[in-house]
Amino acid sequence: MHKHTISFLNAFRGIWTAITTQLNVRIHIFVGSLVLFLAVYLQIPIPEILMLVLTIMIVIVAEMVNTAIEFMSDAITLEHDENIKYAKDVAAGAVLISAIFAVFIGLIIFAPKIISLLNT
Q1: Which distant-in-sequence residues (6+ apart) come within 8 Å of 102 by Cβ?
Q2: Are 70 and 38 in contact, with CB atoms under 8 Å apart?
Q3: What are the pLDDT digits (tens) for 56-103?
Q4: What is the pTM of this model?
Q5: How many CB atoms lie within 10 A of CB 39?
Q6: Domain of 59?
Q7: d(C-alpha 6, C-alpha 23), whole Å
Q8: CB atoms within 10 A of CB 60
Q9: What residues act catalytically?
């Protein structure tokens, strides 16, 4: 049981490290919170809110994996290395793809509700 406790503590420390050291993680959490607040305010149905939560988590997880790759790469060397550059670029690309996906999901869920409010 002790190993699992240490593993959970390390995981929570990793989450805290990402939040406290990475502006982009804080931005994603802030924007995700605003999106969820707006969803509740606009009375978006629960299944769609769950889709928003899943989408927000995908973006945050992608950002955390990107952060882990950056930390690991910088620990290996701060000198230019083409393979490390590729790894960092691919990880950043994964964040970008997840964020674009999140915007599309948000538009699909929010656009009809907002258009309906504007037409009344």
Answers
A1: 55, 56, 58, 59
A2: no
A3: 999 999 999 999 999 999 999 989 999 999 999 999 999 999 999 999
A4: 0.91
A5: 21
A6: 2-118
A7: 27
A8: 21
A9: 63
Distance, CA of 86 to chain centre: 21
pLDDT in the model for residue 1: 64
Assigned token pair, 118: 């504007």
Closest C-alpha to 40, from 54, 53, 30? 53
Residue carrying structure tokens 């929010």 = 110
Looking up residue 80, the CATH number of its domain turns out to be: 1.10.287.3610
What is the domain count for the chain? 1
Q: How many CB atoms lie within 10 A of CB 105?
A: 18
Contacts of 105 (CB under 8 A, 6+ apart): 51, 52, 55
